[in-house]
Design a protein that fits this description.
Blueprint (H helix, E strand, L loop, with lengths): L4 E2 L7 E7 L3 E7 L7 E5 L3 E6 L5 H10 L1 H16 L13 E7 L6 E5 L2 E7 L7 H34 L5 E5 L6 E3 L4 E5 L7 H13 L8 H10 L4 H8 L7
Parallel strand pairs: 3-5, 6-8, 9-11
Antiparallel strand pairs: 1-2, 2-3, 4-5, 7-8, 10-11
Length: 249
């Protein structure tokens, strides 16, 4: 036995499958158009070997052996991409709905935020799953989040500060992905627009966290006791729930 077993005989111009001991099934295509041996990995990790008519299967499999490291890395990348679910309607933020418009007579991708809609216009030749279209969709969603965050977060911060007896200097909304919020030494509060991913009670938790930093500029026991008091003893539960969310896509 060699390093692979053939499932079907390979014809001069054909497609067949062979089994490699490390890679599993490999699709082998022998094509008149091919000028050189090539190997590719297609989602969800299928290895495809293309051979010119004059190249034998044995030569092709020797080429595969020389590319094992590259194939493993390409499979890992393909698996990561496959794990990401493309964004498509029905998708809504708090106040905006996603509207995808593939259009025949356009050649660039445009995003428009208006009238409660995130409209993404893109060439009809592109699938909505294309990386460029998905990037535009995410850009549009972040624009909608920014609009919503600027309307909601300063107002909610003022309400919670008033209810809980805190004072602060200012509130800013930023596209921060390293943290949900921060409070400066001058009691300026910065909140990430990605708070708009969160349910209401976790938004309140983050705001109260930063308001508590107007009293304690650290994460000492006194800080945690203050935060626990202002969250009715639910501080640890809310912190655990927050860990299931991320500021990043």
């Amino acid at each position: 036995m060699g390093i692979f077993s053939r499932k079907k005989p390979v014809q001069k111009i054909s497609e067949t499958t062979v089994t490699h001991p490390a890679l599993g099934d490999i699709t082998v295509v022998q094509s008149q158009r091919a000028r050189r041996i090539s190997v590719s990995v297609r989602p969800p990790g299928v290895v495809r070997l293309t051979l010119p008519p004059s190249v034998t299967l044995h030569e092709g499999m020797r080429f595969v052996e020389s590319k094992l490291g590259w194939i493993a890395a390409a499979r890992e990348r393909a698996n990561r991409r496959a794990a990401v679910v493309p964004i498509a309607p029905p998708y809504s933020t708090r106040y905006h709905s996603l509207d995808l418009r593939p259009t025949v007579d356009v050649h660039t991708i445009r995003v428009r935020i208006a009238a409660g809609r995130i409209t993404v216009i893109y060439p009809a030749m592109l699938p909505y799953t294309a990386e460029s279209v998905q990037a535009a969709i995410k850009r549009g969603i972040e624009q909608a989040w920014r609009t919503e965050a600027k309307e909601l977060l300063p107002r909610r911060t003022a309400e919670l500060a008033r209810q809980h007896g805190f004072r602060y200097n200012s509130v800013a909304v930023r596209n921060t992905v390293s943290k949900w919020g921060s409070c400066s030494g001058r009691d300026d509060i910065s909140l990430s627009l990605h708070l708009m991913r969160l349910p209401d009670e976790l938004i309140d938790y983050i705001i109260l966290h930063e308001l508590c930093h107007t009293i304690h500029k650290n994460h000492s026991a006194a800080f945690h006791a203050l935060l626990s008091r202002h969250t009715d003893g639910h501080h640890l539960e809310l912190r655990r729930r927050l860990r299931s969310f991320s500021t990043r896509w």
